[in-house]
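As a warm-up, study this chain.
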Amino acid sequence: MTSDQIIKIINNINHNKAHGFDDISVKMIKLCPELISIPLKIIFEKCIQQGTFPDVWKRANVQPVHKKNSRQDKTNYRPISLLPIFSKIFEKVLFDGLYGFFAF
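Now compare it with the structure written out below.
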């Protein structure tokens, strides 16, 4: 994993994505990807070395989203979890690394 890979992931994230409970928005992160990529790289490497995923990145805001038919019927809603953006970046880093390793 390199800082450039993290910058690329940040730049490719949809800026309209909702943020998690930490209120850190994608737009804010996209303002300074070069500055934030180095601390994120250090944090991500530490997580991988220790085999941990920060508990704070597991917290989510759960929002109901209407599926169809009557909005008055609670069964016509499904939950979506709004996760912190840093957890999404870390998951993408892991996915890219594992995919590159297992792809043949």
